[in-house]
Input
Amino acid sequence: MFEARLAQGSIFAKVIEGLRELVTEATWECSGNGITLQAMDSSHVALVSLVLRSDGFETYRCDRNMSLGISLTSMSKVLKMMGKDDTLTIRVNDDSDAIVLSMESQNQEEFAEYELRLMDLDSEHLGIPDTDYSCVVKMPSTKFSRICRDMAILGDSVTICSTKDGVKFGAKGDVGQGSIRLNQSTNVDKEEDAVSIELREAVALTFAVRYLNMFCKAAPLSNQVNLSMSEDTPLMCEFKVGDMGHIRFYLAPKIED
Amino acid sequence: TMTQKSITFFFGKK
Output
């Protein structure tokens, strides 16, 4: 049997909203350590890796490792029926072909239960190498979302150039071109508003902005986003999930022929 | 011209 209870069910709903544009169905790997998921988008340009550690749940029980094939599209629809302060319990009974989502209102006066049929999915796993990135940019996730949305107006690609002083996002297309430059914050009251850059080597990388905009669907999970970059290496775009885990999106760059 | 690489070009299949 698998059962995991999350006092703030809305966190789980935000995780699903963060994933479901990039991947419509995925296999969840459940073990005693927690829940993990790795999936590529249908064009195999981007990869997402999710970790939710067991100690982040209010209660967690996993008697044996399980691989659960789940339609994220359907799960998202079910989770929309959850109240914003509801407690969420996810359960898979032994020998069952369904996942049960139970939602309980804070005053314990309303209790809803939905079942979703599990799917048999072919999943390929990729080995993600440990990388010492040349540059890590930390910035407010709302700012990153706004920049990606604005860049998409100008063109299909965005070039991210990072130096020790700042990071520049630039795009050009048929309508024209533009760029936004952020300097490293020197003095901020709140850490979550800061832009910080850890740099060993300057980098300039070009990415399809459409994917960055899909990654930004996970921005409501976290005030800050980390962008880790090295030349000729996929970008790692990370949103923390509270203190229980993270969503890491990897995006292959566009490379000059 | 720039070419979009696949993620499998960088990360090997397990």
